[in-house]
Amino acid sequence: MEMTEYWKGHPVVLASGSPRRKELLEQIGIRARICPSSMEETSEADTPKGLVMELSDGKAREVASDCMPGTLVIGADTVVALDNEILGKPKTPERAAQMIKSLEGRDHQVYTGVTVLLCLGEGRYHKTTFAECTDVSLWPMTQEEILAYAQSGEPLDKAGAYGIQGRFAAYIKGIRGDYTNVVGLPLGRLVHEVDALLTENGGTDND
Q1: Is residue 1 part of a domain?
Q2: Which residues does UniProt assign to the signal peptide (predicted)?
Q3: Backbone phi, then psi, for 35, in 5-degree steps?
């Protein structure tokens, strides 16, 4: 698919520094301008779904404040949840090993929240926000396998301490739902929502 900086005539900005999200957009022919949000990732939401929707909204709004009218801004946030508890992103191999140990041989959920803003200028925009959930099943892992992966460097700063598109693919038993959602951006739902947003001329204005 030929790459373009526009989505149906609108320049696209990705409010994320994730190389995986950038690559996913490029997979469907969109070359987005990368403008990572610097907002603090805090929320009072009490569910994983509520959390990712709120954070994606905040990231998109922060970046949209500096964008020209007509720009499409995409904000996203992904979390891994086990028994409805968010695991977060490990900062050390030791913490990564603990997370992987809790996940191995079990099912868990990956939630990605996405907010798309169509900038109108003067702080106004049209918006859509949604969340996708994918169930992921893992094979049992030995302690040696857990430690080797944790010390590889790959799980650091990744939600749930793993990347499904990397070495951890060896331990994925199956998924139920959108694979790209686990990577970090549910492409099919995103395309559907953006098309609807533009077709409906943006839905509701927000001040």
Answers
A1: no
A2: none
A3: -140, 85
Choosing from 66, 77, 195, 207, the catalytic residue is: 77
Cα–Cα dist 43/174, whole Å: 31
Structural domain containing residue 55: 6-206
Instruction: Please say if 77 is a catalytic residue.
Output: yes
Identify the three-state secondary structure at position 15.
coil
In the block, tokens 């191999």 appear at 93
Helices assigned H by DSSP within 65-142:
93-103
Question: What Cα–Cα distance (Å) separates residue 166 from each residue in 3, 135, 161, 201?
Answer: 25, 18, 12, 39
**What's the whole-number average pLDDT of the chain?**
93
Please report whether residue 152 resides in a domain: yes
Q: Is the pLDDT of residue 204 over 90?
A: no
Q: Are 164 and 179 in contact (CB under 8 A)?
A: yes
Say how many CA atoms lie within 13 Å of 28 toward its Cβ. 18
Q: How many domains does the chain have?
A: 1
pLDDT band of residue 41 (cuts 50, 70, 90) is confident
Question: In this predicted model, what pLDDT tens digit does every residue of 97-113 receive, in sequence order?
Answer: 999 999 999 999 999 99
115: amino acid identity, one letter: T
Q: What is the CATH number for 133?
A: 3.90.950.10
